[in-house]
Specification:
This is Amine oxidase domain-containing protein. The protein has about 55 residues and is of the alpha+beta class. The chain has one domain. It has 2 helices and 2 strands; from the N terminus they run αβαβ. Strand 1, helix 2 and strand 2 form a beta-alpha-beta unit. The protein is elongated.
Length: about 55
């Protein structure tokens, strides 16, 4: 595989990310990740939001 292609891929590409305590900070993380993601980064990761209710 071409090394220039590998250097563009994000280590998060195609992974699952769990955001625990998905309040304002968690949602902001998700929005900023989506805005900064490019096609060259690879497959967008699956983002799971987990909110614990008391």
């Amino acid at each position: 595989m071409d090394s220039s292609i590998l250097s563009d891929l994000s280590p998060l590409a195609g992974k699952k990310i769990m955001v625990v305590g998905a309040g304002i900070a968690g949602l902001t993380f998700d929005v900023s990740l989506r805005r900064s993601w490019t096609e060259e980064s690879g497959d967008f990761p699956e983002v799971l939001h987990y909110v614990a209710h008391r």
